[in-house]
Amino acid sequence: MLVKDSMFNIQRCEVSRISQVNFDDLPFGRVFSDHMFIMEYADGKWSQGSIVPFQNISLNPASSVIHYGQSIFEGIKAFRNVDGRISIFRPEENIKRFNKSAERMCMPQLDKNVFLEALKQLIDVDNKWVPESMEASLYIRPFMFSTDEYIGVKPSETYRFMIFTCPVGKYYAGDVKVKVETHYARSVKGGTGFAKAAGNYAGALYPAKIAQEQGYHQLLWTDAVEHKYIEESGTMNVMFRTGNKIITPALSETILNGVTRDSVLTLARDWGYEVEERRVSVEEIRQLLKDGKLDEAFGAGTAATIAPICSIGFEDANVELPPYSGWEFAPKAAQTLIDIRRGRTNDPFNWNTYI
Ligand SMILES: *Cc1c(COP(=O)(O)O)cnc(C)c1O
Predict the structure, then answer these.
(1) Which carries the bigger pLDDT value, residue 5 or residue 217?
(2) Is the pTM of this model over 0.85?
(3) Which atom of ligand 1 lies at the shortest distance from residue 200's CA?
C-alpha cells in the first residue's frame, strides 16, 4: 500500500537484520528491530522527526541526563491480528501518561498526533518485525531524556525523544512470589511515583535485589509512611479477588496509573464484578487469606499482561494462594485481552489503533 507523504524523514537501512532473528525464541528486550525514531528539542520547539537505522547514539559526558536523570519512558505493545493487520493497544493512554511524566520532570510536552504518527510509521517501516505467532508481540519503547551539556542542576533546555521496538515472545512471569515491603519505599506523597521516570526504577533495584536473595520474585510495595497499605508490585499494578469483588489500591500520586489496570477493571465491571478502588491494607489481605477468602491475586502490566501471585510473604510468614488452575477471573481477563488485541473478538471499548 502507498502511504501518504510522511511527516518524518525516513532513512531505511540497507540490509535488514531480521534473518538473524529466531522468532521462536525471543528473549524479552534484547532483540531490536531495524529502525528507530528520533526527534530533538531545542529553542523551545521540536525538530522534524526522523526514522533511521537502529544504531548507537553519542553523548557528551556532561549530558545532564547522565548526572541528574531527567529521563522518562513508556511501554506499549503492538500485535499481529488474525487478519494480518497490526494494532497498537491503547496508545493514546500511554501518550497522555508520557506528557504527565514529562510535566513532573520539567520536560517539554509532545504533540499527541506527532507521537501517534511516529509510532505508526516506525511500526509500519518495521512491520515484518511484528511477530506472527499468537503468543508474541512487538514491545514499543518511547523515551525522552535531557541533553544539555552542562553539569549545573537545572532543567535542561534541550531534549531528545526516541522510540525503538523489540519483538518479544510470550512473557512467562511464572507464578509470582511477592514480599510485602515494610522498610523501603519506591514512592512517597509529593514524589514522582505516578511518573514513568527513570530514577524511580533505579531506586527500586536494591530493595528488589534483597527480596530476590530471600527467594521472592517481586516486592509488594506499601505506603512509605506506615507500610500498612498496599500500593503495587514491581512494574505492575496489583489486584485481589474475593468472591464477586475485585479490590485494587485507588490511584494516587504514589501509584503508576497502568493502562492494563484500567483495561482489566473495565472488563471486570463489564462482567458484573464489583470493583473497589480504595485503600487496601496488608492486614485486610492477610485476614482474607487466613479466612480462605482470597480467591486470586495478580499483577497487571503491559509486559506480562497478568502475572498470577502464588504466595505472599509477610514479616513472619509466607502464605500461599489457591492454585491458579482454579481461578475464574485472571485467566479469563488475560484471554479476553489477547482475543481483543489479536482481533479474534470484537473490540467493544475501541482499544485497538490500527496502523
Ligand atoms: C508501567 C508500570 C505499570 C503498568 O502500567 P501499564 O500501563 O499497564 O503497562 C505499573 N507500575 C509501574 C511502577 C510501572 O512502571
Answers:
(1) 217
(2) yes
(3) 13
Adjacent-strand bridge partners of 29: none
2 has pLDDT over 60: no
User: In sequence order, which residues have a C-beta less than 8 Å from that of residue 188 and are 6 or more positions away?
Assistant: 224, 225, 254
Q: Ligand 1: does its nearest atom lie under 6 Å from the Cβ of 231? A: no
Q: Residue holding cell 496489583?
A: 238
Q: How far is ligand 1, taken at its centre, from the CA of residue 208, in Å? A: 16
Which triple of cell numbers denotes residue 233?
508490585
> From the CA of 13, how far away is ligand 1's center (Å)?
32
**Above 50 in pLDDT, residue 1?**
no
CA distance 305 to 287: 27
333 CB near ligand 1 (under 6 Å) = no
Phi-psi region of 316 (alpha: psi -120 to 50; beta: other; left: phi over 0): alpha
Indicate the pLDDT class of residue 170, thresholds 50, 70 and 90: confident
Q: Which of 71, 194, 236 to mutate to test the pocket of ligand 1 (most atoms within 8 A of CB)?
A: 236
Taking 3-state DSSP, the helix, strand and coil percentages for the chain, each rounded to the nearest 5, stand at 25, 30, 45
- The mean predicted confidence, pLDDT, of the chain is 96
Please, what are the domains in the chain? Answer: 2-168 (3.30.470.10), 176-342 (3.20.10.10)
Nearest atom within ligand 1 for CA of residue 260: 8
Classify 198 as helix, strand or coil: helix
